[in-house]
Specification:
Number of helices: 5
Oligomer: single chain
Strand content: 35-45%
Number of strands: 11
Shape: elongated
Order of helices and strands: EEEHEEHEHEEHEEHE
Largest sheet: 5 strands, antiparallel
CATH superfamily of the largest domain: Impact, N-terminal domain
Radius of gyration: 22 Å
CATH topology of the largest domain: Ribosomal Protein S5, domain 2
Number of domains: 2
Strand order of the largest sheet: 2-3-6-4-5
Structural class: alpha+beta
Helix content: 25-40%
């Protein structure tokens, strides 16, 4: 059966550059999961390259909801954010934020020239990126008594879920992250262990 919880993203940030008739287009590709994270990355670039004419961007988040946004940031409509976004689509990426910073070189490029310049700058950053396969996940909150601690630890050693947090007070409390395609089976197996409560957490 084909997995339905896989997607492609970036393992780490990457950069690129394109030049045309004196204008420089610096491109920055980031892994990102939220619009707030994208806003922080954009603000950092706006500060670092505050003398640039334009800071255009596109992002595509959440492979389940397919959240996307792009901006021309003062360039003619459809000449900047759209071609950047189309490069994200062309590489079948999610949880990716791509920013192109333009330094104007004194010569107008026209709408066609701008479109191609932003496209090529975005493509250059992605050509330098490490594209990886990732998984849609679910976060499970586990609450259990200490009498079944060994069984929980054995399950962790066997399944290797990502441990998001843990708190051992009057009872054991853990949040673990598992692949979406395996979540239902994992929950069923955990429910066999006595004195374990499981909640699926909503992920923004």
């Amino acid at each position: 059966m084909e997995n339905t919880d896989t997607y492609f993203t970036l393992s780490h940030p990457a950069t690129g550059i394109f030049r045309d008739r004196g204008s420089r287009f610096l491109s920055f590709a980031y892994p990102a999961r939220t619009s707030e994270e994208c806003a922080g990355q954009l603000e950092k670039l706006r500060h670092e390259y505050r003398d640039a004419r334009h800071h255009c961007y596109a992002y595509r988040l959440d492979p389940e909801k397919d959240i996307c946004r792009y901006s021309d940031n003062g360039e003619p409509n459809g000449t900047a954010g759209r071609p950047v976004y189309e490069q994200i689509l062309a590489h079948h990426l999610f949880n990716v934020h791509l920013v192109v910073v333009r330094y104007f070189g004194g010569t107008l490029l026209g709408t066609g020239g701008l479109y191609q310049a932003y496209k090529k700058a975005a493509a250059d950053a992605l050509s330098n990126a490490d594209i990886i396969e990732s998984f849609i996940t679910k976060d499970l909150k586990l609450r259990f008594s200490y009498s079944v601690m060994n069984q929980i630890m054995q399950w962790i050693d066997r399944e290797h879920p990502e441990i998001i947090s843990k708190d051992f007070g009057e009872s054991g409390n853990m949040i673990v992250r598992v692949r979406k395609s395996k979540a239902e089976d994992i929950i069923e197996r955990l429910r066999i262990i006595p004195e374990v409560k499981i909640n699926i957490l909503h992920q923004e």
